[in-house]
Every structure is written in structure tokens, then in C-alpha cells.
């Protein structure tokens, strides 16, 4: 991976405070809580808060005039963890431990966890509005606040851990985004966000036998998952067909797929469908009946039930 990175990439070490690293390598103006990008580079600010228990929160709001390249690494011996959450309308392509993946707000891949041993390279395209939320915390936070340990965090570069950005977590971060000068409100919502994220990871530990994935396994899983990412696709491959595509047994495929993506394959596709529906309804691009038809439901009432089960509200309430 190192050979593919040019010298212009910003180098970020997750084990060290992140705000200062960006401020030192980018041109702009810096205050204690904000970095403002130099105008010739584009429009953009990085806001940051230090919260109790060594939690660092950063919000990036950028519209760049040139490609923005970042090489981030979390050293093998690091005691720090970082959650990268994409709140943008555009997807982010990242090279994670030699694998390419997309971090996208409205698909089950909105949050990427940088565990010890993770290396990430990204190149953000110019003339796009980016809104990225970083949450950095010490591993001791898990035992102090939740009284748990997560063995999967010790899997190093053999694992890629990312989660869907569910509507509840997005709501908590949205409160932070809209009230970024209210320390108490940010602290409360970040704790709720972290509890939700860590609870999901703990659920993975309890439900699955953790597989030691090799890079080829991860690449095969992403190849298989690509067949499930189209919300409008009607004839999905079976689990057997996906397992064959990934060159795994059916049992190993199901275990590894949930390990990497946080959901079983069919639930993964269902979430993509529901997120697609919510976005179309939110933007008033389609009516509930039009979305129902596009997603292949035999009757709008079945779509309504599925939507309510997923989000807890009716499509008409969006």
C-alpha cells in the first residue's frame, strides 16, 4: 500500500490527536477549536471538541477545489479507536488494508472503524460537498463505560469493520452537526452514538464465531456484496450462489459476511432498499406508491409494513 501513496497525501496517525495533524499539514487559519481551509484550496472548516474520557470529536465540512488525499493508519500497538462517519450526500471510496470499499451515508456502510493495524487511503474528488464526522476515543473507554472487551478489535489488518449508519445514529450526529458550539449537547449525543455503535460490535461478538479473514477472503466478500447493493434489483442470487462467488462454504460465507458487514446478506439488501426508499421520499422524488412499485412490492401495503417495521414510522410521515 505504501508504494501507491504519493508524497502529497496527508499522513494521519490515529494514535495521536488528529486535529493538530490536519492543521500542521494543510494551509489555513487555526484556532483552538476550528481550522479554516485556505481559500485557494476550497471552502472548508474542521471543528473539534475535546470531551471527557479522552474523546475527540471532529466535524469536517469541505468543498474542495482539488483532490484531497489522505493516508490514515492506526498502528498495531495503538490503544486508540476511530469511527469515521460519512454524513455527505456523496460516497467516499477508501482503500482499506489493500481492499477498496465505499463509505456511503444511505447504504449499510456509513461508519468505518479504524482498529489497530488498519491503514486507509482515500482521495476525495473536488467540487463535492463533504460532511465527515470523526469520533476518536481510547480503548479504556470500553471497559470504563461499558465494562466490556471486544476481541475482534485485536484482529489487526485481517479485518475490516464497518457498520450501517442507521437513522437513529444519524439523528444523534445531526444534533451535534446543528449545535456544534453546545458542548453539553454534543457530549450527550456522542455518548449515545458510541453506545449504539459499541452495542452493535458486542452483538457481533456474541452471535458469531469470529473468522480470521485473509485479504483474499475480504476481497471475495466485497465482490459478493456488490450483487446485493442495487436496491432495485429483483432477482437476487441465492446464498449458495453468493457463497460460490466468494469461494467459501455456505456456513463460512454467512458467518464472514455478517462479520464484515454487520448484517446477514438478505437483511443487508433489505436495509439498502429501505434506505433508498427513505431517501426518495425525503427528497420528494417519488410517492410511496411509486417507491413500492420500483422496489418490486406486489402491493403498496406490503411496502408500508416493511417500511414501518424498519424505521418505526409510515412512509407518509417522511
Put simply, the count of helices is 10
What is the end-to-end distance? 43 Å
Number of separate domains: 2
**H-E string:** EHEEEEEEEEEEEHEHHHHHHHH
The overall strand count is 13
Spans of at least 5 consecutive residues with low confidence: 1-5
- Helix coverage percent: 25-40%
What share of residues are in beta strands?
Answer: 15-25%
Please state the CA-atom Rg, rounded to the nearest Å. Answer: 20 Å
Query: What is the averaged pLDDT score?
Result: 83
The top level CATH class name of the largest domain: Mainly Beta
**Which structural class best describes the helix and strand composition?**
alpha+beta
Q: Specify the CATH architecture of the largest domain.
A: Sandwich
What order do the strands of the largest sheet run in, or round the barrel if closed? 2-3-4-5-12-7-10-13
Here the CATH topology of the largest domain equals Jelly Rolls
Instruction: Specify the overall morphology.
Output: globular
Amino acid at each position: 500500500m505504501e508504494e501507491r501513496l504519493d508524497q502529497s497525501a496527508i499522513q494521519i496517525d490515529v494514535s495521536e490527536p488528529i486535529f493538530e495533524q490536519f492543521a500542521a499539514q494543510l494551509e489555513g487559519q487555526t484556532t483552538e477549536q476550528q481550522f479554516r481551509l485556505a481559500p485557494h484550496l476550497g471552502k472548508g472548516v474542521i471543528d473539534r471538541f475535546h470531551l471527557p474520557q479522552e474523546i475527540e470529536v471532529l466535524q469536517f465540512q469541505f468543498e474542495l477545489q482539488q483532490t484531497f488525499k489522505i493516508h490514515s493508519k492506526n498502528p498495531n500497538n495503538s490503544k486508540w479507536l476511530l469511527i469515521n462517519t460519512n454524513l455527505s450526500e456523496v460516497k467516499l471510496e477508501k482503500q482499506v488494508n489493500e481492499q477498496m470499499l465505499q463509505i456511503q451515508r444511505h447504504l449499510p456502510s456509513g461508519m468505518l472503524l479504524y482498529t489497530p493495524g488498519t491503514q486507509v487511503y482515500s482521495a476525495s474528488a473536488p467540487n463535492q460537498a463533504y460532511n465527515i464526522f470523526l469520533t476518536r476515543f481510547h480503548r479504556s473507554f470500553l471497559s470504563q463505560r461499558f465494562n466490556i472487551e471486544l476481541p475482534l478489535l485485536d484482529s489487526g489488518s485481517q479485518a475490516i469493520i464497518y457498520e450501517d449508519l442507521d437513522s437513529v445514529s444519524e439523528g444523534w450526529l445531526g444534533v451535534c452537526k446543528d449545535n456544534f458550539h453546545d458542548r453539553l449537547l454534543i457530549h450527550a449525543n456522542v455518548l449515545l452514538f458510541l453506545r449504539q455503535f459499541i452495542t452493535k460490535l458486542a452483538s457481533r461478538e456474541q452471535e458469531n464465531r469470529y473468522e480470521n479473514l485473509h485479504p483474499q477472503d475480504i476481497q471475495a466478500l466485497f465482490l459478493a456484496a456488490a450483487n446485493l447493493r442495487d436496491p432495485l434489483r429483483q432477482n437476487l442470487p441465492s446464498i449458495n450462489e453468493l457463497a460460490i462467488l466468494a469461494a467459501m462454504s455456505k456456513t463460512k460465507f454467512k458467518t464472514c459476511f455478517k462479520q464484515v458487514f454487520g448484517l446477514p446478506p438478505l437483511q443487508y439488501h433489505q436495509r439498502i432498499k429501505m434506505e433508498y426508499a427513505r431517501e426518495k421520499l425525503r427528497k420528494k422524488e417519488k410517492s410511496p406508491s411509486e417507491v413500492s412499485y420500483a422496489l418490486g412490492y406486489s402491493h403498496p401495503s406490503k411496502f408500508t409494513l416493511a417500511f414501518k417495521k424498519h424505521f418505526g414510522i409510515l412512509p407518509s410521515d417522511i
